[in-house]
């Protein structure tokens, strides 16, 4: 049968409309403004693509810096003025701000509480659009429309000016931005009528603390669509007309234009962490033929593809907004740091080179990444489910660090160690990748590094964390130190360290077992039971011990920061993910269920941790704190304690009540969304899938909860498809009555992950009263 060209064109057009309609629906459910009160530096960067180096965003207070190195900074929904649009937003990495202005030349952004004190401009959120891959706003003071978009390594600006003979673009290069820390050097210069280049070098707080002497360098090469009529230089003190370069702290340029009404100036900015030449190459390779409009279209299509791997349907659009905004943040954080030619920054200042595969493509990307502390209960599970290439990139990045430094670095900023928690779960995350089937790296090297991370202590770098490994290996617990420090003899955070090291030793043990390293396995699996050494059988709580083996006195189970980092004994007692049944037996199953259920009943009254206090640490002295990492698995522990219906109840309550759709109530109230972790938790839990063990078991399992959505269709990382159906699902029908897996009756609240990854259909019949028999008889294996 022949189809006429005209009819074929119509059919294709209709098909494209339908695809675009679905894709636009996905984008419409992402709201980057959710949770933008007290949000972290990476969090609000709408003009970016998944895992991009170029993360462009408006800044309301980025120039204020970051006293302790980690606090909320950048964009805050409570602010009403913008000081510039910044290109780099990564953990401990920030720099290069542009700002279009008009009228009297001002050389500094000015203060939030002093209108007119600088070139910042007021704006109304009615005139602001934030979508994945695109941002626009009207700058009220100048009547300028600013628009942003990006490719992986190139930022795009489009400024629409009013009629004016004093239109300008400020290039602020040598000034503090966000988490970047002090600027140590900077340069910007016009190299011809329409091209500029330069760099900024910073010394972030966490580099100074954990990798003294390191630096973070950012390079750029930009192209203007229109030659400026005037160019002048800026520094911290003054503006100098007719000067086309500026160097040092405070370096910047201003570009002057006479503009007609609605005249636009577009800018493309190639970025790099290695050199100006590579910034130029990144620009040429990714953006030479792109306009702002085509770059925006490409960025949003890339988001459609990535977000579209998970398709959820249900009656409540707010749930979809939570889901896709959480997924957006998970795909936004931890951006690439390598160039199009495979160059990447090394700690010693040299330039590394990525290898190519047999097809001539680079085998992986090098990354900048926040610490993976708690990431095994959210983001690595999401990566392993549908985005395994990024999990692979993470593993390869850490192995590159190991080859250069001899240690994993946990948090990484341009190969500098920037872990702020003093522990190091990289080995656990790599062991989890291996057990999840991600194995495209040197296994011998990976195992050597994982083992060293758990057992090694000689000449250990402070930035690699775990400075108390020696004491843990010797005693199978970490002794408590009164002083606020960690060294080879113990730690002030000895309780949480003992629990964390026990868990990571388990992960390494299972890795060793897989590779036939029997002796290592026996040592590591014995260490994985170290948590028992600080379990107080009278209190049925974990209780830090001193070096002489006695429990510390003046013990308050709700006291944070004494024995426990970012938490307390009540919260951390449940931190035995490697063997939940052993913990349940120590406490007693009935007592365990009653206590944990009461914790959630009480915590529900306080928004599951932090109440309405806008502070990242608001919940660390509470019974349960969903706003921080140590607690994120415990709502799933009922699957191990013969009460899976309570897991179903509480994960749905947390999804419904802790997570919001407002600018202030997004992830709790100002909680600690470390580069996509809390968003990832929502994604996994709302699908009804989770692994308490973080994929580290010899044969990982996936535990089943209560899906938020009527149906979810997941494109798995291997290309197969998983469908999850929740029949008779509603806000009140949160309890599983019965289940089938690929048509066969399923009476347990878990599946082996390798079975799940073959694809198929999980069907759950839901109801408003718990079926206390379903899933209760056969718990997921605690010991394999």
Automatic annotation (TrEMBL):
<dbReference type="GO" id="GO:0005829">
    <property type="term" value="C:cytosol"/>
</dbReference>
<comment type="subunit">
    <text>Monomer.</text>
</comment>
<dbReference type="Pfam" id="PF07971">
    <property type="entry name" value="Glyco_hydro_92"/>
</dbReference>
<dbReference type="GO" id="GO:0000224">
    <property type="term" value="F:peptide-N4-(N-acetyl-beta-glucosaminyl)asparagine amidase activity"/>
</dbReference>
<dbReference type="InterPro" id="IPR012939">
    <property type="entry name" value="Glyco_hydro_92"/>
</dbReference>
<feature type="domain" description="Glycosyl hydrolase family 92 N-terminal">
    <location>
        <begin position="29"/>
        <end position="272"/>
    </location>
</feature>
<protein>
    <submittedName>
        <fullName>Alpha-mannosidase</fullName>
    </submittedName>
</protein>
<dbReference type="InterPro" id="IPR005887">
    <property type="entry name" value="GH92_a_mannosidase_put"/>
</dbReference>
<dbReference type="InterPro" id="IPR008928">
    <property type="entry name" value="6-hairpin_glycosidase_sf"/>
</dbReference>
<dbReference type="GO" id="GO:0030246">
    <property type="term" value="F:carbohydrate binding"/>
</dbReference>
<dbReference type="GO" id="GO:0005975">
    <property type="term" value="P:carbohydrate metabolic process"/>
</dbReference>
<dbReference type="GO" id="GO:0006516">
    <property type="term" value="P:glycoprotein catabolic process"/>
</dbReference>
<feature type="signal peptide">
    <location>
        <begin position="1"/>
        <end position="23"/>
    </location>
</feature>
<dbReference type="InterPro" id="IPR041371">
    <property type="entry name" value="GH92_N"/>
</dbReference>
<dbReference type="Pfam" id="PF17678">
    <property type="entry name" value="Glyco_hydro_92N"/>
</dbReference>
<dbReference type="InterPro" id="IPR050883">
    <property type="entry name" value="PNGase"/>
</dbReference>
<feature type="domain" description="Glycosyl hydrolase family 92">
    <location>
        <begin position="278"/>
        <end position="768"/>
    </location>
</feature>
<keyword id="KW-0732">Signal</keyword>
<dbReference type="InterPro" id="IPR014718">
    <property type="entry name" value="GH-type_carb-bd"/>
</dbReference>
<keyword id="KW-0106">Calcium</keyword>
């Amino acid at each position: 049968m022949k189809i006429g060209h005209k009819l074929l064109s119509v059919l294709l057009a209709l098909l494209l409309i339908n695809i675009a309609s679905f894709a636009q629906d996905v984008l419409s459910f992402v709201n980057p403004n959710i949770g933008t009160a007290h949000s972290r530096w990476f969090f609000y960067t709408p003009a970016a693509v998944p895992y991009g180096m170029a993360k462009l965003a408006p800044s309301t207070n980025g120039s204020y810096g970051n006293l302790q190195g980690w606090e909320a900074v950048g964009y805050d929904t409570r602010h009403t003025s913008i000081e510039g649009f910044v290109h780099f937003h990564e953990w401990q990495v920030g720099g290069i701000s542009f700002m279009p202005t008009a009228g009297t030349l001002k050389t500094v952004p000015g203060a939030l509480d002093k209108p007119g004190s600088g070139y910042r401009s007021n704006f109304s959120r009615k005139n602001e659009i934030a979508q994945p891959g695109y941002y626009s706003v009207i700058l009220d003071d100048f009547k300028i429309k600013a628009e942003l978009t990006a490719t992986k390594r190139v930022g795009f600006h489009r400024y629409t000016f009013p009629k004016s003979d004093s239109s300008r673009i400020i290039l602020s290069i040598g000034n503090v931005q966000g988490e970047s820390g002090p600027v140590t050097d900077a340069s910007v210069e016009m190299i011809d009528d329409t091209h500029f280049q330069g760099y900024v070098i910073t010394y972030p707080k966490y580099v100074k603390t954990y990798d003294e002497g390191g630096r973070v360098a950012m390079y750029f090469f930009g192209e203007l669509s229109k030659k400026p009529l005037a160019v002048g230089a800026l520094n911290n003190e003054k503006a100098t007309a007719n000067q086309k370069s500026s160097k040092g702290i405070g370096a910047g340029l201003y570009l002057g234009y006479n503009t007609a009404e609605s005249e636009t100036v577009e800018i493309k900015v190639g970025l790099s962490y290695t050199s100006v030449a590579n910034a130029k190459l990144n620009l040429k390779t990714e953006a030479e033929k792109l306009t702002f409009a085509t770059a925006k279209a490409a960025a949003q299509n890339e988001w459609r593809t990535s977000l579209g791997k998970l398709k959820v349907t249900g009656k409540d659009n707010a749930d979809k907004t939570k889901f896709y905004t959480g997924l957006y943040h998970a795909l936004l954080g931890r951006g690439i740091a390598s160039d199009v030619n495979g160059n990447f920054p090394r700690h010693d200042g040299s330039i590394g080179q990525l290898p190519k595969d047999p097809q001539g493509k680079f085998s992986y990307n090098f990354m900048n990444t926040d610490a993976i502390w708690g990431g095994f209960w959210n983001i690595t599970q999401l990566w392993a489910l549908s985005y395994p290439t990024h999990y692979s990139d993470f593993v390869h990045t850490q192995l590159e660090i190991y080859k250069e430094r001899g240690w994993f670095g946990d948090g990484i900023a341009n190969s500098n160690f920037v872990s702020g928690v003093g522990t190091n779960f990289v080995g656990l995350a790599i062991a989890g990748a291996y057990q999840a089937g991600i194995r495209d790296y040197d296994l011998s090297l990976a195992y050597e590094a994982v083992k060293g991370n758990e057992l090694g202590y000689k000449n250990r770098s402070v930035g690699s964390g775990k400075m108390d490994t020696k004491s843990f290996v010797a005693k199978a617990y970490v002794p408590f130190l009164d002083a606020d420090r960690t060294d080879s003899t113990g730690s002030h955070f000895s309780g949480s360290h003992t629990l964390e090291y026990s868990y990571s030793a388990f992960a390494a043990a299972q890795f060793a077992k897989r590779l036939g390293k029997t002796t290592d396995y026996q040592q590591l699996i014995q260490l994985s039971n170290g948590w028992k050494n600080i379990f107080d059988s009278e209190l049925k709580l974990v209780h830090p011990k001193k070096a002489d083996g006695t429990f510390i006195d003046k013990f308050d189970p709700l006291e944070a920061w004494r024995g426990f980092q970012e938490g307390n004994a009540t919260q951390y007692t449940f931190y035995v993910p490697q063997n939940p049944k052993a913990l349940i037996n120590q406490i007693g199953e009935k007592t365990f269920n009653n206590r944990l259920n009461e914790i959630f009943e009480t915590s529900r009254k306080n928004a599951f941790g932090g109440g309405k206090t806008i502070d990242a640490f608001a919940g660390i002295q509470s019974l349960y704190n969903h706003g921080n990492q140590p607690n994120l698995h415990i709502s799933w522990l009922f699957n191990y304690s013969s009460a899976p219906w309570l897991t179903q109840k509480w994960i749905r309550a947390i999804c419904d009540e802790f997570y919001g759709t407002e600018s202030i109530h997004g992830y709790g109230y100002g909680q600690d969304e470390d580069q996509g972790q809390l968003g990832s938790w929502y994604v996994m839990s709302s699908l009804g899938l989770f692994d308490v063990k973080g994929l580290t078991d010899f044969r990982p399992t996936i535990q089943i909860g209560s899906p938020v959505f009527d149906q979810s269709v997941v494109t798995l990382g291997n290309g197969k498809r998983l469908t999850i159906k929740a029949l008779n699902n509603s806000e009140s029908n949160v309890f599983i009555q019965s289940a089938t897996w690929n048509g066969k009756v399923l009476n347990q609240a878990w599946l082996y992950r390798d079975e799940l990854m073959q694809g198929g259909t999980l069907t759950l019949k839901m109801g408003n009263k718990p079926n206390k028999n379903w899933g209760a008889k056969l718990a997921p294996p605690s010991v394999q």
